[in-house]
Each structure stands twice: as structure tokens, then as C-alpha cells.
Amino acid sequence: MLSLDASQRAYAAIQEKLARGEPFLIAPQGTSMFPFLIAGRDKVLITPIASQSRPRRGDIVLYRREEGLLVLHRMHHRSREGYYFTGDNQTVLEGPLERGQLLGIVTRIYRWDKDFSPSHPAFWIAGRLWLWVRPFRPIISKRAKKILKALHLYKETGTNHHD
User: Fold this and answer.
1) Is residue 119 one of the residues assigned to a domain?
2) Residue 81 resides in a domain
């Protein structure tokens, strides 16, 4: 996760693209979206949310907290009160958030020399299943991290931290 200062600088840089409805590329930070997104390995294309559209359960959304922090998390559900999100490496729900706090939806994921859509059936199914196992994520994530490290597909960096 970016610091508040870094988050505000990033928001200033993407504000113009958001206003014009242009997609933009970002590199996720921290470990809150592990194992689906890994800092230092993945980049994502964010498409601004059109005023008439709404994210769906399972979408990975960039939103702005009230204090100004930018966050990239998966939408858990929507209610009359607002939108609720959770990081893939977390068990706690964040919300309700207002529609105006939602900035964009991940529409492409870039990993090494490949790119794919989060709506690809395998990723889509895995993301929805991951929402269901939310209470067990700490156990699953810990084991997944060990396996990925053993396969040299994940390494700790100075920017990785749990938010």
C-alpha cells in the first residue's frame, strides 16, 4: 500500500486520465491482494468507471478512502449503504464506500511477458471462490507464499507489507 503522501501524488497524476475516461497502468503495492496480485511482479490496467456503470462482486476496483489513500481491492458486495471491499490477503471488509470514491476497475493484468483479462474464466472463477473462503485466507495465503517462494515466483521486497 502506498503512503498517504505517495497516494496523493499518484492521484494527482491520474486525475486527468480519470476525467477524460482514459485507462491507465499502475503497479500494485503491498501484499493486500496476494496471491492474485503481487507487488514488483504485476501491473494492472485501470479503466475509469463510467457514471452509469457499477462494479460487480469480484471486480478489482481502485478506490479512494476518505483520507485520500488509494486502494486496489476486490468488491465483496453492495448494499443500500454502499460498496464493501476486501483485499485478497485480508479477512476484514472495508465499507461502506460511496459511489464517488470508486475510481476504476482492473480490466487487464500484466504479469511477466503476458497479459490477460480478469474476466478470463479461470481468473474469474478463482476470484469468486476466493471471496467465499475469506475466513480461511490467512492459512491459505501463508501456504501459497511458501510454495511460490520455493518455486522462485515470489520474493519479499521492501514495498511489501500488509495493510
Assistant:
1) yes
2) yes
- Domains: count for the chain: 1
The model's pLDDT over 53-89, given as tens digits with 9 standing for 90+, comes to 889 999 999 999 999 899 999 999 999 999 999 999 8
Question: CB under 8 Å, gap of 24 or more: what pairs does 92-95 form?
Answer: none
Scan for cell 479503466, then name that residue: 47
Q: Does the residue 157 lie in any domain?
A: no
How many whole angstroms separate alpha carbon 43 and alpha carbon 120?
Answer: 16
Could you say which residues of the chain have pLDDT below 50? Answer: 158-163
pTM of the model: 0.82
How big is the CA angle at 69 (ends 125 and 81), to the nearest 5 degrees?
A: 65
The SS3 assignment for 6 reads helix
Cα Dmax for the chain: 45
Q: Contact 96/81 with Cβ under 8 angstroms?
A: yes
Q: In CATH, what number is assigned to the domain containing residue 96?
A: 2.10.109.10
Instruction: Please report whether residue 161 resides in a domain.
Output: no
* Structural domain boundaries enclosing 62: 4-150
